[in-house]
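Hi R.,

Here's the chain you asked about this morning:
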Amino acid sequence: MNLPGTEPELEVPRIRWMGPVHRLENALVAGVLLTMALLPALEVILRASVHSRIPASVPVVQHLVLVIGLLGGALAAREGRLLAFAGAARWIRGDTAKVAHVIANGFAAATSSLLCVASLRFVLSQRSLGKILAYGVPLWIVQSVLIVGFGAIALRLLWRAGATWPWRCAALVLAFLILAVAAWSPIDPALLRWPAMLLLMVAVVMGAPIFTALGGAAMILLWSGGQPVSAVPVKLYQLTVNPTLPSIPLFTLAGYLLAESQAPGRLVRLFQALFGSFRGGTAIATVLVCAFFTTFTGASGATILALGGVLMPVLLAARYSDRNALGLLTGAGSLGMLFPPCLPPMLYAIIASSGGLVSISIEDMFKGGLLPGLLLVGMTAWWGIRTGPARGQAGRQPFVLREAWSAAWGAKWELLVPVVALGSLFGGFATPVEAASITACYTFLVVCVLHRDLRVGRDLLRVVKECGILMGGVLLILGVALGFTHYLIDAEIPDLAVAWATGTIHSKWIFLLLLNLVLLIVGGLVEIYAAIVVMVPLLVPLGDAFGMDPIHLGIIFLANMELGFLAPPVGLNLLLASYRFKRPMSEVTRVSLPMLAVMVVGVLLITYVPWLSTWLPSVWR
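And the predicted structure, written out as tokens:
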């Protein structure tokens, strides 16, 4: 996938008078996200102290997620940071690259325009119902963010289609032709399904954003099947106002605050003081720090970007070879994805339970992921120890109790972040959203008040804006992916898959092996959040048909997604490490293969030893 903020092929000139508008957008997204972080925490305080509550705080926070999703997506489009596959435009140059960019952005702009029109129809239908959100504000006013957001994304995609007006006009013409065919073509839409899907595939290969691939596919399938395309924005709206979904941007905000502060340095110092005297102690410290940060950043890639510059010199100073240090950092970048409060297990529980076939709580998903997560962390640390310098070589530091105590005291507030998150999540006094809010507020106090790593003004707004941009791109993908899933379910694809699998595969163990192979491919090609929304509704009925425990199935799925971060050719960790350390993709892939092999063994153990995932949820009630 294209990395956020790394579009080297195009320099788009800025318009001077747009500066204040951009600052207003930044402030608006930051203000909405901070409000989301504050309201649930205040709700907990009021409920515990004066047995009161903030009226309508829950629906307000849910609808603020909608605002973050669409306005954050508009900011991502403005900055050229909508998540995309690594399109062909990244490997071609000259006018050919410009043509590819026009095709990608023109098709993406047409998709966004169609979503804007579909959103308009949805909002008009809701306006006629006369529903009120809270405090006298009509619900349709907030839902209008769908129209504004998709409209802004379409315009900005056209603007970024080229550095000069001829290229932008070419993208505009392409977008208009696509819209004209969708609205006025005399040809039966059913006959245009596969030509349209082929054009969509070309646009995606050229670098169109991921939400275009999923949203475009959903609308093409619905349109060619004679169904209303308004189902896509409807599903996006239903997802963003899910009662549990606000926990995702709030835990991500906590992770961003930690990653942008001096916390990485303090934690590296602590783990080095504790484990630096052992052979491979630096590798153990690296693995633990990466797992800690991935737990809060949600496997978004922020771990490699934030910690790579800190940990690479530490590994090299400990006499690790450049090859082994690079491979270890690339592999460790997604560790911690199974631990609370990481985002993929929460999203898996939400999506898996939405179909009604199974009911999985977020707490049980985290309990099920604890032992498998520790297994993967332990195996990665073992590989780091084996590849470390021999016992007689320099690079290890003696254990000094005073230094260990000093480092622990310096990192004491960061070490309490998991305690706050887990205590509020499993303590029974807070919902998952309130637990995320408490964690975000506590992290703010740590980095902005206690340590003063970030200034409350400009630094804080910058970090919150970055979190909003990431969440905008992710929530767009989730929403339109749910529209695609809506078509699959409506077409009874899960039922057909179950009938085929049960009629063809007669062994549960063969099914698990094939499941791993398919998920490894999916994890290496598809963004994890989109994979959860699209694949889980298909997998849950299959798992039920083969008598699998739903928690075990979920952990298998997530472990394979974690493995997919290292899978060539476009695993996210490979791309991020290549960008962060300025190394060719071929080199990063080559040095990461041993780590990939280690994690394959771990995933197979998780798959074929079910009690690793099911024992803890069964005894911890």
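Residues 1-9 have pLDDT under 50 and may be disordered.

Let me know if you need anything else.
M.
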